[in-house]
Amino acid sequence: MMSDRTERLIDIFIHSFMPLLQAGVKFTVPLTLISFALGLIVAFITALARLSSLKPLSWIAWFYVWIIRGTPLLVQLFIIFYGLPSLGVTLTPFPAAVIGFTLSVGAYGSEIIRAAIGSIPAGQWEAAYSLGMTRGQALRRIILPQATTVSLPPLFNSFISLIKDTSLAATITVTELFQKGQQITAAVYEPLLLYIEVALIYLLFSTVLSGLQSWLERRYGRHNVRAGGRIS
Amino acid sequence: MTAMIEMKNVQKLFGPHHVLKDINLSAERGKVLVIIGPSGSGKSTLLRCMNLLEMPTEGSLTVGDIRMEFHDGNKPKRDQVLTLRRQTGMVFQSYNLFPHMTVLANVMEAQVIVLKRSIEEARKRATELLRKVGLADKANAYPSQLSGGQQQRVGIARAMAVDPKVLLFDEPTSALDPELVGEVLKVIQELAAEGMTMVIVTHEMKFASQVADKVIMVDEGCIIAEGTPEEIIQNPAHERVRSFLSRITER
Ligand SMILES: Nc1ncnc2c1ncn2[C@@H]1O[C@H](COP(=O)(O)OP(=O)(O)O)[C@@H](O)[C@H]1O
Ligand SMILES: [Mg+2]
Predict the structure, then answer these.
(1) All structural domains of chain A with their residue ranges
(2) Domain count of chain B?
(3) Which residues form a coiled coil (chain B) (predicted)?
(4) Which of A197, B102, B126, B182 is the most buried (most CB within 10 A)?
């Protein structure tokens, strides 16, 4: 015989699952995907700027990374959403969150890409140059494809972190997964159950990403089979 | 005889470190120039100055029909550097093959990207070159699947693919297991027989005497002896050359 309490919990779990999943699919997932895609572009440009021989460019990139890495993401989101209106820039919650997360991915990602480029042995540049390639050709054809393989695992770390970090968007009123969990909890007073349920859905999303990572690493790590993961 | 590479009063400094001191040399068209000398004497730096992987600090360098002057601080023009490099090919001690490409793609890459040849043309030439170095059957393998000797032969094919006027070798067999050295030297000897202009840094003295038209001994950034293999390797007159050679053969 099931107790009334257990029955109630199961009932709440089942009834809240779809709304939570919907919040995840409608807000958490797009927020993650859009921010990560835009963030990668920002990261790539920033990494190239940091490596550029044009000093002002590399200085601007350094400054951007310094600011973003040195301040809490939560505070950045508050500045963008609650702070910018005083400068006349008023954003709705979702775009504000996208901007915040994009800047974050851009900064951390640029360091990953920069490190990956730096990890490619100098001999690869030299071989490319000895064949008459320009710096751009060497970068595009020889260095970046190898740096991509190197940066996939840490970039996926960022990706998986991001899907969890989007819960911060709740604080700027985006009704994403965590916010939805809070709302339901407020109505039914079962915080343990609801927050575990929210956690499970985050786990589901990040597990899908991990699977994607394994697939990509198998696909792009092909030439390293015999070298046992050695890159050069 | 006309020179393919000529260096006049070339100096190279790394910061305060004077690595090449007044180098004068020429590599003749269709001939093999071998550079020997103790480790740390500046052989690699000398070779790398020939394709501007290192910029000479002072002096003048001629490769084919391109002549460049170096004075403290002046950087050569990018286009000139590229044109000069396209006349040379380099084979590295550690092969430096592109690990993310198949053997065939390694040999095609610069033909397509630098020389703008069509894919078909590049593939044809690459296949030809791989056959020449005895690796036609490895075209679709990745470098990590090859032995050191095979990788270095791919390295030679890759350097040849852009039809360089001169090939530069930096200790091409030093990283190889002894039993694999022969297959690489054989390929180099065949190229020499075909009249390829080459500059080779090596510690293989027997090979050097066989393949060289001229031998240069470098010590502490200076050329201390220059002559035929007979003069430098078989009957060395210079004391420092003799002691270097006896140290080499003791190993
Ligand atoms: N990029 C560099 N920066 C500073 N010193 C260098 C550099 N490359 C070579 N050297 C120095 O120049 C000297 C000659 O080196 P190298 O040309 O490699 O000699 P070899 O090939 O004869 O062994 C060494 O003392 C080496 O430490
Ligand atoms: Mg050397």
Answers:
(1) 4-221
(2) 1
(3) 105-132
(4) B126
pTM of the model: 0.90
Chain A residues with CB under 8 Å of a chain B CB are 121, 123-124, 126-127, 129-134, 137, 141-142, 145-146, 149, 222-227, 230-232
CA torsion B189→B193→B195→B197, rounded to 10°? 20
Is residue B120 packed enough to be buried (19+ CB in 10 Å), middle (13-18) or exposed (0-12)? exposed
Look at residue A224 in the predicted model and tell me its pLDDT: 52
Q: Is residue B81 part of a domain?
A: no
Name the 3-class secondary structure at B206: helix
Q: What is the overall mean pLDDT for chain A?
A: 93
**Chain A, nearest residue to B142 by Cα:** A223
Class of domain A4-221 (CATH, top level): mainly alpha
Which pairing describes strands B222-227 and B58-63: parallel, antiparallel, or unpaired? unpaired
B125 in any annotated domain: yes
Nearest CA-CA distance, residue B78 and chain A, Å: 9
> Is the Cβ pair B51, A130 closer than 8 Å?
yes
Residue nearest to ligand 1 atom 18, measured at CA: B44
What pLDDT is recorded for position B1? 59
**Residues on chain B touching A226 (C-beta within 8 angstroms):** 142, 144-145
Q: Range of B107's domain?
A: 97-163
- CB within 8 Å of chain A, chain B residues 161-190: 162, 168
* pLDDT tens digits along B55-110: 999 999 999 999 999 998 788 999 999 999 999 999 999 999 999 999 999 999 99
Q: Is B70 a domain residue?
A: no
**In a domain? residue B155:** yes
| Beta carbons within 8 Å of B134's beta carbon, 6+ residues apart | B153, B183, B187
When scoring A53, A120, A129, A130 by the number of chain B Cβ atoms within 10 A, the one with the most, hence best to mutate, is A130
Question: Cα of B171 to ligand 2 centre, how many Å?
Answer: 7
pLDDT tens for each residue of B91-100: 999 999 999 9
φ/ψ of B20, rounded to 5, equals -120, 130
- Measured in Å, residue A26 CA sits from the centre of ligand 1 at 60
- Interface ipTM above 0.90: yes
Entry field: residues in chain B? 251
Average pLDDT of chain B? 95
Below-70 pLDDT ranges, chain A: 1, 221-232
pLDDT digits (tens, 9 = 90+) for A207-232: 999 999 999 888 876 555 444 334 43
Nearest atom in ligand 1 to B46's CA: 17
